[in-house]
Amino acid sequence: MTPVAPRTQRPGPETGTRPVRPRVSGWRRRDRRWGLVFIGPQLFGMVAFVLLPLVAAMVLAFAETDGLRSFSWVGLTNFGDQLTDPLLWRAVLNTLGIAAITVPIGLSIAMVLATVLNRIRGRTVYLILIFAPGVTSLVAVSMIWQQLLRSNGILSSGIDLVPFLGRPDWLGDPRLVLISVSMVVVWSSLGLNVLLFLAGLQNIPPAVLEAARVDGAGPVRTFLRVIVPLQTPTLFFMTVVSVISSLQTFDIVFILTHEGGPDNASRTIVYHIYDLAFRRFEFGASSAAALLLLVLTLLITLAQFGLQRRLVHYES
Amino acid sequence: MKGSTSYTRRATAVLAAIAVAAVAACSGSSSGPSDGSSKARIVWTTWGSAEDLQRFEDFNDEFMERHPDIEVVLQAVPSYGEYHPKLLAQLISGTAPDVFYLGDDNVGTFVDAGVLTPLDDLMNSSDSKATHDDFFDGLFGAAIEGGVTYGVPTDSNPDVLWYSKTALEAAGITDDPADLAARGEWTVDTFLDMMDALRDADMIGAIFWNYWATHYSWVSAYGGTAYDEQGRFVLADDETSVEALRVLGERFQDGSFRVADTMPEGAGASTSFVSHQAGFFVQGRYTIGTIRQAGEEEQFDIAPWPSVDGEPKPVGVAAAYLAINEATDHPEAAWTFFEEFVSAEGQEFRLSGGGNAVPSILGADDVVLDGYPEHAETFLQLRDNGFANYASEARVPGLSDDISAAMLRHYEGRVDLDETLATIVDLVENADMPDPADLADPEELDEAESTNGEDENDDDPDGEPSP
Questions:
Q1: Nearest chain A Cα to B21, which residue?
Q2: Which of A12, A169, A251, B379 has its CA 20 to 30 A from that of B241?
Q3: Which chain B residue is nearest to residue A34, measuring alpha carbons?
C-alpha cells in the first residue's frame, strides 16, 4: 500500500506560511492588471448590453408590463399567448423563409465568386468592390435598395419594358416582398462570405489541387470533389452564422417595408418582438417572444452541429 | 505594493471614466443649460416634415427672445412611425424630453401609463393663456381620463373632401359639391352618382387614407357610430353602420374608391389628384402645400363629407396633443413653453401662411380663412362638429392600426364584410379596453345617470368636463 498523500497541504501553524503559489513576476502582475483594463470596456459592454438585458427579458417574460408603471406577474401566460398568436407563427414562417432563401443562395454565390477570385489576377480590387456593402451601414444599404425597389424604381421600370411581364411591386406585393428582402440580405452579406471562403480556399494545399489535375480532373470536378469537401469546415461555420443572422433579420425589414407589411408578409420574429414592445407596449409578451426566438435559434444551431459530424470533412 | 495600488487605482479610474462617458453618451437629459448659465433648459420633441420643423424652430427662437431665462431645444423625429417607440424608450430610461407631442392613436396609452402632468390646475390658473374652455371639446379624445386633462390638442386636421373641378368637369359633372353642401343637398347618393360618372370616364372617384377617421366618418355620414356614448363598441351590431361599411367596401372593390396607402409611387394619391386623374381626395389642410407645388390652385376646392340626408354629420378629426413630462426638472418653464405653444397666438404663428392644420383653440380661425381654398370655412365647420379618435380605441396601443388592417383586407376584396366585422369584434374583445367609467369625468357620469340617457349637446362648450 502506497501511503496516500493529503490532497491539500494546509499551512503549518508552527510556521505560519501561506499556501504556495506560483511566483509571478512584477511585470506579469502589471500585465494582468492592464489586461483587465483592456478587456474592461468589453466586459462592461457585455454585462450592460447582453447579460443584463437577457436577465431582464427572462424576468419580464413572466410579467404583464407596459414598461413604464404597470407590472404584474402572470406566470406562463405570455408564452401561452405567444404560442397561440397567429402573428408570431406568421413571423416564424417569414423568418425561416428568409433563411431558406438567403443561406443556400448567398453561400453558393459567395463560394463560386471566391473560387473565381482565387484564380484571377487583381483580385484585391474585385474583393474591395464586393466587400464594400459589408462595411456599409445596413440602414444606408436598405435606403438605397428602397429606392431601387420602388414600384417606379429602376428595377420595376426595367422589367416593365419586357412584354407581358408587367411592373412588379417589389415591396407592395405580398408575394414578392420576402424575395425582395432576401435579395438585399444576400447582397449585403456577400462581401464577408466571399472573404471567408477565399481565406478557406487559400488554405487548400496546392499539392492537392495539382494531384487532382494530374489525375485528370477538370475544373468542375476539382471544384465539386476536392474544393467543396475541403471547404466544408468553412461552409459549416458560415452556415451557422448565416442562419443565426437570418433569424435576427430586422433592420432591413424595418426600413424597406412598412411595418412588416404588406399584410404582415415581411414580418420577421425580431420585428414581431419590436412591434409588441415599442408599438403595443407589451413588454412581457415581447420578452416571451424573444426567449422563444432564443430557443428556436438554439434548436436550429444544435441541429446543425448534429449534422456537422456527417457532412463536415476536417483534414487531419 | 505601492506600485500595484497605483496601477489598480489607475485601472479603476480608466474604467470609471469609460463608464461615465458611456452613460453620458446615452443620456438625453435636459436638466442643465447647455451654456452653463442659470437658464432653465426645456427639451421638447415632435415629428414632422422639414417645413414643419423649420416653423417650430422659428417658434423656439421667438419664444427664447420673449423668455431669455428659458432655453428651448427641439429634438425632432422625422418619422411618425418611429416617434412613439423612441419616446417610450426615453421615458423608460428617464431621458424623455420635458414637453412632447403625442399622436391621437397613442395619447391614451401614455395617459394610462401615468407619465404625464395633469394640466387642469395650470390651464385654469388666472393668468393662463390656454384655458380648458378655449379648446374645442370634441378634440380632446383620449387626452382626458376620469375628468383630468393630460394633453391638449396642438391643432387639428379634419378630413375634408378636396375635389378637382377639372376632373369633375371631364366626367360631365356639372354640380359643384361645395354649392350642394351649402344648399343642404350634398347627399351620399349624389356623391355616389359622381363616383359612377368618374369611373365611367376612366378616372378614380375618391382617394381615402386607410385609418380610423375614414371608416368612422363614413359610418357617421350614414348616421351610424362605431362606439356608443359609454365607449362600448357597437359598430357590428348597428344596422346603419354595417350598411355604411357595406357600401364603403363595395366602392373600394369596384375601384371607384382607392386606398391612398397602397397606391404605387409615381402614380400615387397626390400625383393622381393634382393631375386631375381623381375626382376627390379626402385629406386635411396640409393638402394646400401639395396643390401649390403643382400649381392650378383655382382648380381645387373643398367640400364636407356627404351625408344620407344632406345635413352635416360629425366626422373624424385627426389631432396631435402636447403633454408635459411628469418627471420634468423644470415644471414652470415647461408650462410657460406649453401654454404659449398651444395658445391662440402660438397656433396663429405656427399655422399662418398656408400652414398645415386647423387651430384647436378659439380666436385663431383667421389663419384658416386666408382666402384659400374658396370654401375654407368648411375646415372650421368640420372641426367644430367633429370627433377625435374614440377614447376607448385610442387607449389600446395598435388597436386602430389592427382594425384598419382588417378593413384594408375587406377594401381589397380579400375578405368579406361579415368576416371582417367578426375579426374586428374579436380584436376589440381581446383588447384590454379601459372601463368606460375611467374615460369620462365622474361628475359628468353622475349627471348622465341622473338624466337617464338624456341627449347631451356635444357642441355646447358648457358641456365640457370641468376640471
A1: A41
A2: B379
A3: B11
Contact predicate B321/B154, CB 8 Å: yes
A62 and A107 housed in the same domain = no
A43 with A103, same domain? Answer: no
Annotate A47-67 with three-state secondary structure: HHHHHHHHHHHHHHCCEEECC
- pLDDT-based confidence at B9, cuts 50/70/90? low
How far is B125 from chain A, CA to nearest CA, in Å? 29
* B1 contact A CB<8A: no
Residue A177 and residue A282 in one domain: yes
| Residues in chain B closer than 8 A to A267 (CB atoms) | none
- Min distance A58 CA to chain B CA atoms (Å): 18
Q: Is residue B212's pLDDT more than 80?
A: yes
| Cross-chain residue pair A40–B15, CB shorter than 8 Å | yes
B14 contacts A37? CB cut-off 8 A: yes
- The larger pLDDT score, comparing residue B351 to residue A314, is at B351
Residue A37 pLDDT > 80: yes
A-chain CB neighbours of B11 within 8 Å are: 33-34, 36-37, 40
Question: For residue B354, what pLDDT is reported?
Answer: 63
Which CATH code fits B160-315+396-434? 3.40.190.10
**On the CB side of B167, how many CA atoms lie within 13 Å of its CA?**
29
Q: Which amino acid is at A182?
A: S
Residue A19 domain flag: no
Domain boundaries, chain B: 40-156+318-384, 160-315+396-434
For residues B101-121, average pLDDT: 91
Work out how many domains chain A is built from and give that number.
2
A148 and A238 in a single domain? The answer is: yes
What class does CATH assign to B40-156+318-384?
alpha beta
Residues A44, B22: C-beta atoms closer than 8 Å: yes
B45-62 pLDDT, tens digit per residue, is 999 888 888 889 999 999
Q: Does B17 reach chain A within 8 Å, measured CB to CB? A: no
Percent of chain B scored above 90 by pLDDT? Answer: 61
Q: How many CB atoms lie within 10 A of CB B40?
A: 24
Boundary-marking domain end, from A40, A73, A106 = A73
Question: Looking at the predicted structure, is the pLDDT value of residue B195 above 90?
Answer: yes
**Interchain contact B91–A (C-beta under 8 A):** yes
Q: What is the mean predicted confidence (pLDDT) over A69-73? A: 86
Q: Which of B260, B177, B179 is nearest to B214 (CA)?
A: B260
| Strand intervals (E) in chain A | 63-65, 71-73
8 Å CB contact of B89 and A274:
no
Nearest residue to B231 via CA among B427, B34, B389: B389
Query: Domain limits at A301?
Result: 81-311
Indicate the residue of A37, A150, A152 with minimum beta-carbon distance to B11. A37
Residue B467 predicted with pLDDT over 80: no
Q: Which three cell numbers stand for residue A161?
A: 419594358
Q: Which of A33, A152, A282 sits opposite B264 (nearest CB)?
A: A152
Residue A250 contacts B where some CB pair is shorter than 8 Å: no
Which pLDDT band, with edges at 50, 70 and 90, does A22 fall under? Answer: low
